[in-house]
Design goal:
Elements (H helix, E strand, L loop, with lengths): L5 H11 L8 H23 L9 H17 L5 H6 L2 E5 L4 E4 L2 H7 L8 H8 L12
Antiparallel strand pairs: 1-2
Helix pairs in contact: 1-3, 2-5
């Protein structure tokens, strides 16, 4: 991925969503890089633009989408925070309660749709026709 402002996007995300003490640095970096790659890939696929040409106007929205997903999925919640929320399943017979984890969040990335209707409104203005020569 050759997104020109990738390092700045990751740096800003880390300011908004610092690594919790209960999460290993390599796990934090892996989830963050995977999520960033996923959202950029989705935007590139929707707009038919190379990642190098994505406008700076997308950066704030990308950052907000990522922050929202990390919060909603409870990716970096502590065990106490998980017990208060982010229950992934409950079983009644012999009582079993499962809470979300960073590993489950990473697996759930394949089902996340970062390009929702609100984001599409922004992206449509930049969408290109596939196969059209924009340089010539």
């Amino acid at each position: 991925m050759a997104y020109p402002r990738l390092n700045e996007l990751i740096k800003n995300f880390k300011i908004l969503q610092p690594k919790p003490v209960n999460v290993a640095q390599d796990m934090y970096d892996l989830i963050l890089k995977t999520a960033v790659s996923r959202i950029i890939d989705k935007v590139v696929a929707f707009t038919n633009m190379p990642s190098e040409e994505l406008p700076e106007e997308f950066d704030t929205t990308l950052l907000l989408k990522l922050t929202g997903w990390f919060s909603e999925a409870g990716v970096f919640m502590t065990d106490d925070e998980r017990r208060a929320g982010a229950v992934t399943s409950i079983k009644e017979g012999d009582t079993q309660i499962n809470y979300g984890s960073p590993q489950q969040a990473l697996q759930s990335l394949s089902n996340v749709s970062f390009v929702d209707d609100d984001f599409k409104i922004l992206l449509i203005r930049y969408r290109r026709i596939r196969g059209w020569d924009y340089d010539g």
